[in-house]
Design goal:
189 residues, alpha/beta, Rossmann fold, six-stranded mixed beta sheet, two-stranded antiparallel sheet, 8 strands, 28% helix, 29% strand, globular, PRTase-like, orotate phosphoribosyltransferase activity, EC 2.4.2.10, transferase
């Protein structure tokens, strides 16, 4: 399946001037929520990601950061037949709430919707380590990191896209006066 075409068909591949959760600017934004609203597509995406994970990689738990990682973490956990939970921000810091916990020594995959700089996923990984969990891998629907090494463990993604990003002070879209849109869920300072 050509997943980029699916994103475009569902109106989930946006073009314009966007403020990413990383703080970077981009002419493109992938609104995974518009894909994940379809349970059949969510399930298929998770199965395709799961099929890329080596069978000998032991995973006990999948953890996604709220908000974007919740659905895909759940679907990936279901595909892997393991437990799935999410971390959420409380006073600006990732926390496990709602009775969720990580047992010492549990093998954890951190799952995100989109990875650009990996900021949220790295915050979740740090949280997992505080509980004594062992982060063994990362996963996402869309890897838009441009191949930059972000994580100290493997990253498994549905698709990899090399989309332009800019530091705010160097953004040509800002210089052209194109209005900036922040479609993500994280409140930036």
């Amino acid at each position: 399946m050509n997943w980029l075409e699916v994103f475009k068909e569902k109106g989930a591949f946006l073009e314009g001037h966007f403020l990413l959760s990383s703080g970077l600017h981009s002419p493109n934004y992938l609104q995974c929520a518009l894909i994940l609203q379809y349970p059949d597509l969510s399930e298929e995406i998770a199965k395709e990601i799961a099929n890329k994970i080596p069978k000998d990689l032991k995973i006990d738990l999948v953890v996604g950061p709220a908000l974007g990682g919740i659905i895909i973490a759940y679907e990936l956990a279901r595909a892997l037949k393991v437990r799935g939970i999410f971390a959420e921000r409380e006073e600006g810091k990732m926390k496990l709430r709602r009775g969720f916990t990580v047992k010492p020594g549990e093998k954890v995959m951190v799952c995100e919707d989109v990875v650009t700089t990996g900021g949220s996923a790295l915050e979740v990984a740090s949280l997992i380590k505080e509980y004594g969990g062992d982060v063994v891998a990362f996963s996402c629907i869309v890897d838009r990191s441009g191949g930059k090494p972000i994580f100290d463990k493997p990253l498994y993604s549905l698709i990899q896209l090399n989309l332009e990003t800019y530091q705010p002070e160097e953004c040509p879209l800002c210089k052209e006066g194109i209005p900036l849109v922040k479609p993500g869920s994280r409140n930036l300072k």
